[in-house]
Design a protein that fits this description.
The complex is a heterodimer of chains A (399) and B (292). Chain A is an alpha/beta fold and 399 residues long. Chain A contains 19 helices and 9 strands. In chain B, 78% of the residues lie in helices and 0% in strands. The chains are: A alpha/beta (399), B mainly alpha (292).
């Protein structure tokens, strides 16, 4: 201690050392000041592409002008937002004022956000799509649909001329273009979103792997398997979209963001176009996806968060997001997004279906994924694979 | 001299070993290790033994997920095969390059720099370049097409060729580490020993096998130990080139569980399996190092 004091006084006697200490202290103070959080701004955590951010900011700017608030939009992935909410809930304090979550991850995060009462949401329940509103109701209304999304067929019009309208057309296209049909076959939720539309289109429930619809869909998959791009086993949304941009595949299923990506590259609306999914024996279907907004349990300014939430779901804001970003609104009175670029998506609106509402949906989803991979990449028999998978699910449920 | 060196640390600290000042001097390091190594490791262990659905602790639920997952076993196999093949390839390539570039010739420094470039580049940049080179419509297939040859699916998921490609690309990026270690060791061999070997009639391969390689033994052992342990952590190369399912290894599998399924427990359990493999693998490597 004495030594330290002596060293300090010696340093202060040396003008150069004293100057260095002063500079170091100034820098530390400046760094600490720079790290101070701006508590006056609202923080909105959102799963948005960097390219979409400027257009989104334009819409948020209307709120800022109207209220004098400042909103910091933090682009993140849904998984990161979900973890951040869980961490803030566990810590008992947080920095996020409003968070967007994927419809798929609402249930696990439900208790990390506040319930919304009638005063919070105003007339929104009357103007929002009933099914979309129901998806956000978990032990009370907790999430409101910020945007809806679903998959459509994305195809190379220059190569195919027209999109396959039926399953038979799809098989014919696959045979004519071997190795150039893509499926998002990686083990993740995106694969389930590619599988369920076919199961539903064949009359399957999506809740059981061994019904007739599931079997019909998997027989189709087995028929298509030899003609799939070999990289399908690892494709996800972005990698399959890139493969199509490079001309490696001529057809796949994807979300609307892919069309925005192609438009930015000068590839859409021509040669790459969107179209409804091919119709199966029982018609057409596609999986409901989308981003839902919730107010974190430990939001610093709940009242201001509610005001921002109400603004983002207002007709003007939703119309702005539809126009600028091509997002589909859950408001029945909002204009439909898209134009020529998203024509295929618009045509699928009536065919959108939510995923099975089961407590153990993640396990069911994995079973669909593994069965698909066994049949398509492993050459397994569809009937036996589906029957075994359902038996295993039933066994686990019983256990 | 040795005695003075041995006393130096205490002399600098100005305190007896185990004394208060010595403990205070070590405190920042201990705190750092506790905060950034021990605590995260304990949290990961707790996570691995927590049931993700019910939150029960301790539980083997996450390990049951792993054991019943075919991709996990492919990842375990990949985590043994890919690092072993990579290290073998880079030791051979690094030794060959070090021997070749130990000679004095015009432009030697430029060639040495060129060999080190892949390691100097940011990993993601190097791998993105490699993917552009080896993709279905990449430059390599462009060159093959120009030569009238059929395209090659270097990265087709799960194929032997994709494993070989990942091994080759990873070795390409990390061979400079082995090269630099061996080049330094070669430079440290006294010229007199080479001279004596030549006078005794040892030339060419005999000189390499019976003089140079034995003298490089400790450096080779260090290179294998360093790269062997590092190679077990392989992640970016298979992930960028083939995705989590193409050439799975334990770190990509853990990432897949964490990112695609949001199963933090299974991800932590996979990370523990990787740590276990690293500990088991390090024992013989360390013994060999000590023997060398």
């Amino acid at each position: 201690m004495v030594g330290t004091r002596r060293a300090a006084s010696a340093a202060l006697r040396d003008p150069r050392a004293a100057g260095a200490v002063a500079v170091a202290l100034t820098l530390c103070t400046a760094a600490l000041a720079g790290c101070q959080r701006d508590d006056s701004a609202l923080t909105l955590a959102l799963a948005i592409l960097p390219g979409e951010l400027p257009a989104y900011r334009e819409v948020v700017a209307q709120f800022e002008r109207g209220t004098g608030e400042r909103v910091v939009v933090v682009p993140q992935q849904y998984a990161d937002i979900r973890r951040a909410l869980a961490a803030e809930a566990a810590a008992g304090r947080g920095t996020i004022d409003l968070a967007e979550l994927d419809v798929y991850s609402l249930a696990p995060s439900a208790h990390d956000v506040r319930t919304l009462d009638a005063a919070d949401v105003g007339d929104l329940p009357e103007v929002l799509d009933r099914a979309a509103l129901d998806a956000g109701t978990i032990d009370g209304l907790r999430f409101l649909p910020h945007r809806l999304t679903w998959q459509a067929l994305v195809y190379d019009h220059a190569v195919l001329g027209r999109a396959p309208a039926t399953w038979d057309d799809l098989v014919a296209v696959a045979r004519a273009h071997p190795g150039r049909i893509g499926v998002k076959g990686a083990l993740y939720e995106g694969l389930t979103c590619d599988v369920l539309p076919f199961v539903w289109a064949a009359g399957g429930s999506g809740e059981r792997l061994d019904d007739d619809g599931a079997l019909a869909a998997f027989r189709l998959f087995a028929e298509l398997a030899p003609f799939l791009d070999p990289y399908s086993a690892t494709f996800k949304e972005s990698t399959i979209a890139e493969a199509m941009a490079r001309g490696e595949i001529v057809l796949h299923l994807n979300w609307p963001f892919a069309m925005s990506l192609y438009a930015s590259q000068g590839l859409a609306p021509d040669p790459i176009r969107s179209a409804p999914l091919p119709a199966g024996p029982s018609g057409r279907a596609t999986v409901l996806g989308g981003g839902y907004l919730g107010i974190p349990r430990n939001a610093r300014h709940p009242e201001r968060s509610r005001a921002l939430l109400r603004f983002l779901l207002s007709r003007d804001a939703q119309a702005g997001l539809a126009e600028r970003l091509g997002w589909f609104s859950a408001r029945r009175d909002a204009p439909l997004a898209g134009g020529a670029l998203l024509a295929g998506y618009g045509a699928m609106r009536a065919d959108v279906r939510p995923r099975p509402r089961l407590v153990d949906y993640p396990r069911l989803s994995r079973a669909w994924q593994q069965a698909f991979r066994a049949v398509v990449f492993g050459g397994a028999d569809p009937e036996r694979t589906l029957r075994d998978a359902q038996r295993e699910l039933d066994g686990r449920a019983g256990a | 001299m040795t005695e003075r060196r041995a006393q130096a640390p205490d002399a600098v600290a100005g305190a007896a070993p185990g004394g208060l000042r010595a403990r205070l001097a070590a405190a920042p390091l201990v705190l750092y290790l506790a905060a950034f190594l021990a605590y995260p490791a304990l949290v990961a262990v707790r996570l691995a033994f927590t049931d993700a659905t019910g939150g029960a602790f301790p539980s083997l639920a996450s390990f049951r997920v792993l054991v019943s997952d075919e991709l996990f076993w492919r990842a375990v196999a990949g985590n043994l095969v890919v690092p072993a093949a990579t290290v073998a390839l880079e030791v051979v390539a690094g030794l060959a390059l070090a021997l070749a570039l130990a000679w004095r010739f015009p432009g030697r420094r430029l060639v040495r720099a060129a060999v080190v470039v892949p390691f100097a580049l940011p990993e993601i940049v190097f791998l993105t370049v490699a993917r552009s080179l080896l993709g279905t419509r990449g430059y390599a297939n462009g060159a093959l097409a120009a030569a009238g040859l059929p395209a090659v699916d270097f990265l087709a998921p799960g194929t032997a060729l994709s494993y070989a490609t990942v091994v080759a690309v990873d070795a390409w990026r990390t061979t400079p580490v082995v090269f630099l270690i061996l080049l330094g060791a070669l430079a440290a061999i006294p010229e007199e020993i080479g001279e004596a070997a030549r006078l005794d009639g040892a030339r060419g391969f005999r000189r390499l096998a019976f003089v140079t390689l034995p003298l490089l033994g400790p450096a080779l052992a260090a290179a294998v130990l360093l790269r062997g342990l590092d190679a077990l952590r392989i992640f970016a190369t298979p992930m960028v080139l083939t995705g989590a399912e193409g050439v799975p290894v334990l770190s990509t599998y853990a990432y897949h569980q964490w990112s695609d399924y949001g199963d933090d427990g299974a991800a932590a359990a996979a990370a523990m399996a990787l740590a276990l493999i690293a500990v088991v693998a390090s024992i013989p490597l360390l013994r060999r190092r000590e023997a060398a």
